[in-house]
Amino acid sequence: MHARRDEPASRPHADPGLQPERTALAWNRTMLALVVAGLLLLRWVPRHGGFPLGLTLLTAATALAITVGQARRYRRSARGIRDGRVEADVVGVVGTTVAVALLGALALVVVVALPLR
Fold first, then answer.
1. Angstrom distance (rounded) from CA 63 to CA 45
2. Is residue 25 part of a domain?
3. Is there a domain that residue 6 lies in?
4. Which of 66, 39, 62 is nearest to 52 (CA)?
5. How far from the centroid of its chain's Cα atoms is residue 103's Cα?
6. pLDDT tens digits, residue range 33-88?
7. Is-contact 55 42, C-beta < 8 A?
8. How far is CA 94 from the centre of its chain?
9. d(Cα 20, Cα 74) in Å, to the nearest integer?
10. Distance separating alpha carbons of residues 37 and 32, to the nearest angstrom
């Protein structure tokens, strides 16, 4: 599937409602969920000291990595649709999965295992 000749050069594909936009929205929801989870961890700082603050910073770093990679993922997906060949972002998905699982496990440590100050 190739771009139509009358399509403006600035548009990477013909249909703005295609997969890249839906994928971008999904990554944005993931980033927002990480930010909210990180902010919720701040409520444990008075009880547990700096450890929850460090986790908040890690969630912010993960959210920032998602945001920074978003433009690249969008362009790659849009080009793939235009060219009829879309490849999954395996590194992004696996990296986000590992980061979220690790942050979740560490957050459980904060809530369940750390002694109160």
1. 20
2. yes
3. no
4. 39
5. 13
6. 989 999 998 988 888 888 889 999 999 999 998 888 888 887 887 788 778 787 87
7. no
8. 11
9. 6
10. 9
